[in-house]
Amino acid sequence: MTTAGPALTAPGTDPGPAPPAARVRGLRRTFGRVTAVDGVDLDVPAGSVFGMLGPNGSGKTTLIRMLLGLTTPSAGTVELLGRPVPAGLAASLPDVGALVEGPGFHPFLSGRENLRRAGATEPRLVAREVAPAVEAALERVGLADAAGRRYRGYSLGMKQRLGLAAALLVPRRLVVLDEPTNGLDPAGTREVRAIVAGLRAAGTTVLLSSHLLSEVEAVCTHVAVLARGALLASGGLAELLDTAGGGWEIATTEPDAALRVLRDAGVAAGTADRALLLDAGADGPRLFADLVGAGVAVHGLTRRRPGLEELFTRLTDGGPDR
């Protein structure tokens, strides 16, 4: 069987943006009277680290399962690596590594033996390549020293690492990680961050779900926020934080004098650690110039961006999950 190569582009021609690694339109899934995913439209940009955020029960895992063909949608369409799901799964899945709802391995086999069994099913590994691929994956996730131990004796964090190793046995275009830091200690969490950063540097798209906002903010370029099955917001992380406001901060060694000038101008401000805090509606640059003109010692103007936790709270503060 022959495989078509990439389409050629004439020299000097802009090929345009890459198609999304995953796309859903009107996606809906119900379980009896419960709506787990409710009319979601979403693009996962190629090359991004895309964080899917939401409280427990918000629909993250159900959406991921529909992306991978593990759950059938009640309505809507799904594309994975440019191919429809489920019709194109046979062509798409070899380029996808996934860790969803925790790994499942044989309890009485060692970590190495489990990975070798997984490697034997990889269509892109011939028999002689399985053993070296397994050892490289074990080393990558920090399990080389425990590879000979039976899986049933692994801690939760070690099981997560082994599942991640299985997802990374061969190079992938898309890696999907459902709560990848579940059960990991701080050192293990930092290692997962490093692995995700390495995948992105290699051009791999990473889609991960988490309820740990600090981890998402540390590694993700894009986010989607879900609650009660609905998509509340999605886009580039920096752009979403910018649109959420945050105000201005003016550094000064004379806060009392600065407050008097602003008060005379009818502007409310707070103070914190030798700085003036202005709300998002204030004209920070103009007020900074006014303070300079009034002879107040000011040393810097900074746009304050809200953190992901603040943005998440604003978006999801609408009642309990279904």
Automatic annotation (TrEMBL):
<dbReference type="InterPro" id="IPR027417">
    <property type="entry name" value="P-loop_NTPase"/>
</dbReference>
<comment type="similarity">
    <text>Belongs to the ABC transporter superfamily.</text>
</comment>
<dbReference type="GO" id="GO:0005524">
    <property type="term" value="F:ATP binding"/>
</dbReference>
<dbReference type="InterPro" id="IPR003439">
    <property type="entry name" value="ABC_transporter-like_ATP-bd"/>
</dbReference>
<feature type="compositionally biased region" description="Low complexity">
    <location>
        <begin position="1"/>
        <end position="13"/>
    </location>
</feature>
<feature type="region of interest" description="Disordered">
    <location>
        <begin position="1"/>
        <end position="20"/>
    </location>
</feature>
<dbReference type="InterPro" id="IPR003593">
    <property type="entry name" value="AAA+_ATPase"/>
</dbReference>
<keyword id="KW-0067">ATP-binding</keyword>
<dbReference type="Pfam" id="PF00005">
    <property type="entry name" value="ABC_tran"/>
</dbReference>
<protein>
    <submittedName>
        <fullName>ABC transporter ATP-binding protein</fullName>
    </submittedName>
</protein>
<keyword id="KW-0813">Transport</keyword>
<keyword id="KW-0547">Nucleotide-binding</keyword>
<dbReference type="InterPro" id="IPR017871">
    <property type="entry name" value="ABC_transporter-like_CS"/>
</dbReference>
<feature type="domain" description="ABC transporter">
    <location>
        <begin position="22"/>
        <end position="253"/>
    </location>
</feature>
